Amino acid sequence: MVRFTLCVLTLIGTLGLSAPAAKGADSTEIVLLGTLHDGHQKNARYSVAVLRDLIVKLKPAAILVELPPAIGGLASLEKERIAGRFAGNENDSANAAADALRIPVVAYDREGRNEFYRDTKYFERQEQLSRRINSWLAAEENAKPAPAETALLGPLLGNAARSRDYFYSSSGPETINSEGLDRIIRLKHYIWEELMPRLSARIPSLSDLAGEFAFFRDEWHERNQIMADNIASQARKRPGQRIVVLCGCEHRYILRDLLAERSGVLLKEFYETGPSTP
Predict the structure, then answer these.
(1) pLDDT at 97 over 60
(2) Quick count: other Cβ atoms within 10 Å of Cβ 68?
(3) Residue 21 pLDDT > 50
(4) What's the CA gap between 198 and 210, in Å, rounded?
């Protein structure tokens, strides 16, 4: 328990992003724009129209969207635009901005994403796991074998989730695309993907969950690695230009980490950018 507690305390003090290496003048500028998926319909400060206008102002050479090449055997893009069957939310923003700028939209998510979720019952398992852990944390008897864990994890998980939901519902693009929100999301994922597998492996009443936590951890890292590879591939095709990458804001922290390691890539926030190169 002491080791677990120290791990959490160390995490809180060290959650940060490493500075990327210096980049050359021919680097591709990448602006990662965190999106809210269906939350844009509920947040007037970061609506579909606000996102569209923000992309247009950035004047990128291409817009990358969080879609796989095909879903259910149907192409996600048609004539360099998101197909009407997948319309809505940030997809509408991307298409409208691309029309205004006369640039392509590119899908960069992992191939077979939706089919994988269906075949593995991904979201059903995720919901069951959350219910199980929340129930365990709420039971007073579990504080006896693991007092430090229950004292720390409940408030950490609860506050991270409430903070995230508050910002999603009421904040504009600058807050959504900030290191502050990235740190909250980083903390949430660290708890679920690093701390919870260790905890569940050594507490008898949770030992059957160790494999589930490992499954979600591995899938999260694998998917984001593929997404980063695809973004970097598109960047190599546009040296010296700017591309805008739309990603659910849960992905921002990890994609920034992965892309910061790539040569020929210069990460920028939308509020740090100047005029783009024609």
Answers:
(1) yes
(2) 18
(3) no
(4) 8
Burial 223-237 (b: 16+ CB within 10 A, else e): bbebbbebbbebbee
CA 214 to chain centre: 18
Place of tokens 């951890």: 217
78 forms beta bridges with 81
- Cβ contact 190:263 at 8 Å: no
Residue 98 contacts residue 81 (beta carbons within 8 Å): yes
E-assigned strand segments in the chain: 28-35, 62-65, 70-71, 74-75, 77-78, 81-82, 105-107, 242-248, 265-268
Instruction: Tokens 């398992």: give the residue.
Output: 125
Q: Which residue has the tokens 């069957």?
A: 85
Q: Which tokens in the block code for residue 239? A: 């040296």
Q: Mean of the pLDDT values across residues 34-48?
A: 94
Query: Which pLDDT does position 15 carry in this prediction?
Result: 53
Q: How distant, in Å, are the alpha carbons of 11, 37, 107, 112, 248 from that of 71?
A: 38, 17, 11, 7, 18
> Which tokens in the block code for residue 28?
């591709």
Q: Cα(78)–Cα(46) distance, rounded to whole angstroms?
A: 27
Question: How many Å is the maximal CA-CA distance in the chain?
Answer: 64
Contact 243, 273 (CB under 8 A): no
The Cα 26–Cα 29 span in angstroms is 9
Length of the chain: 278
- For residue 46, count CB atoms less than 10 angstroms from its CB and return exposed for 0-12, middle for 13-18, buried for 19 or more: buried
